[in-house]
Amino acid sequence: MTEAKYKKIEAILKQRIIDQTYPLNSLLPKEIELAAEFNTSRPTINHAIHNLVQQGFLEQRKRLGTIVKRNKIAQEFTHVIQSYNQEMNDKGLKARTKVISFDKINPTSEIQNALNLYPSDSVFKLVRLRYVDTTPIVKVTTYIPAKLVPELDKIDFSQVSLYDELRKRNLPVTHVTRKLEVKQASSTISKTLKIKENDPVFYFHSYGYAKRDQKIEYSIATYRGDLNSFIIDLNLN
């Protein structure tokens, strides 16, 4: 049994759980069936299944079999400032970003208030869809004052972290405030995130500050409710 073999099978089984090829609460195919499908031994299959049980994607029950569970991604950005890619990589997940659009626009009154801008100012509007493997997890629309970051639209943010780019420009995000709402998915967001219309979604407004409390970022993020949970870390002063 090689590590590459069981790891590859583990990744395939995990993806089938995430994209619901194996539906929630369904029985996983028997080890002998999976061994035949992947042309490998039962110990190799058993090793892959054991790892997924440890990660919370599967549950083994006596006299019944192996049950598919939905292991939500524990998002920690509520108390940690880091990029999406870094957070997913730290969890052993494969992150990917698709840039839907990237334009320079005149700010609406909402954006003006969020970033302390004048109507004559311009902002960059960056719309991204973030994935784990091939599954869309969150749609993020970000607004950044154009006067603070000239030529930002020349950067390919499917490959580059926005926070890393701001840090390079001596504008690191040092403080973030977020407002959370739970909403029902619209027809547009349901298509984008591949969920059903009216499914629950987490809706975050985020305000990012650079040094001296300079407003540098205003983002609206819509997270799938079925695949995400959020860690809140509080301390008594």
Short description:
The protein has 237 residues and is of the alpha+beta class. Helix content is 27%, strand content 32%.
Give the count of structural domains.
2
The Cα radius of gyration reads 21 Å
The arrangement of helices and strands along the chain is HHHEEEHEHEEHEHEEE
Helices and strands: which structural class?
A: alpha+beta
* Stretches with pLDDT under 50, minimum 5 residues: none
Output the CATH class name of the largest domain. Answer: Alpha Beta
Describe the 3D structure.
27% of the residues lie in helices and 32% in strands. The chain has seven helices and ten strands. The model has no long low-confidence stretch (mean pLDDT 87). It is α+β, with helices and mostly antiparallel strands and 237 residues long. Helix 1 crosses helix 3 and helix 2 crosses helix 3. The radius of gyration is 21 Å and the shape is elongated. It folds into two domains: 66 residues, Arc Repressor Mutant, subunit A; 158 residues, Chorismate lyase (3-Layer(aba) Sandwich).
